[in-house]
């Protein structure tokens, strides 16, 4: 596990943010406050069975039950400290693959829970490139069913992710963090330019 990786830097930045806000601050995750979000992250790191509840909607109750149990058993600050420690050793080799976008998105979920009007975060060009590259798989999963071609454009580098097909075209332009929010269903909170062209 590389302590300088974007995944690890986002994990620690998010934990710092958790400690700056009230545990009951709303997040972009519907129905969740900060306490629920940090419990989710700890459960995701440490409870593979509950992970099924994330991947399989019919088992969502299991994930929710584990979050509720984590809140009963641990204080907010304790959960933040546990999340900061990182995933179990078995998962650390896959940390970048499974956690980069997870922590990036949830960092924004916390930052924008109370207001969408937040200052833009400055990441390095290398970080931006990594985010765009990692969006390819999730974008195919979430956008290809729309029956239009969607083009995500990094406004700084011009890098593009193109998914889907159909007679229409949707071009979404913005900072890579904003594009990530769009792909993961948080367009309402993202700062983007969206252009639609009918075929």
From TrEMBL:
InterPro entries noted in UniProt? CHP03085, DinB/YfiT-like, Maleyloyr_isom
Mind telling me which NCBIfam families this protein's record contains? maleylpyruvate isomerase family mycothiol-dependent enzyme, TIGR03085 family metal-binding protein
The name this protein carries in UniProt is Mycothiol-dependent maleylpyruvate isomerase metal-binding domain-containing protein
Q: Which organism is it from?
A: bioreactor metagenome
